[in-house]
Amino acid sequence: MRILVVSDTHRDAYALREAILKQPTAEVVIHLGDGAEEAQEIKDSFPEKMFLLVRGNCDWGSTLPVEEDVTLGGKHIFFTHGYTYNVKYGLYTATEAARGRKADILLFGHTHYAMTDYEDGLYIMNPGSLNGSRGTYGIIDITNQGVVTNLLKI
């Protein structure tokens, strides 16, 4: 199973559409906030894909949750925008929340800095910001052999 992970599109619906089109085999799109409006609008163009969305600190008026849990491909994923966990100042609170939920994968945005890591059984990914000419997004492949995370430029 391939999962497309995006965040911080900040009204750049074009970049969001491009990322989805560049990953045609992705069955699921997870948007980590600060772009909830365009994500909700664009999902109707891709009815074959599952869209999972949370709100970010710039998604004023959104009724989306600030965090969610989902199990995909047998892996438990905890995802949030990250501002409620102060991820700009460190990952301890977010990783502890993920571990408390017995997550295999933690996804967050907010910082606009792409990163991926593996720490004591927990995969950690921030896909960075999809907005702008240097936009980035993440891919997670879950197979029988395990989990692979990748960061790509738009």
TrEMBL record:
<dbReference type="InterPro" id="IPR024654">
    <property type="entry name" value="Calcineurin-like_PHP_lpxH"/>
</dbReference>
<feature type="domain" description="Calcineurin-like phosphoesterase">
    <location>
        <begin position="1"/>
        <end position="144"/>
    </location>
</feature>
<dbReference type="InterPro" id="IPR000979">
    <property type="entry name" value="Phosphodiesterase_MJ0936/Vps29"/>
</dbReference>
<comment type="similarity">
    <text>Belongs to the metallophosphoesterase superfamily. YfcE family.</text>
</comment>
<keyword id="KW-0479">Metal-binding</keyword>
<dbReference type="Pfam" id="PF12850">
    <property type="entry name" value="Metallophos_2"/>
</dbReference>
<dbReference type="InterPro" id="IPR029052">
    <property type="entry name" value="Metallo-depent_PP-like"/>
</dbReference>
<protein>
    <recommendedName>
        <fullName>Phosphoesterase</fullName>
        <ecNumber>3.1.4.-</ecNumber>
    </recommendedName>
</protein>
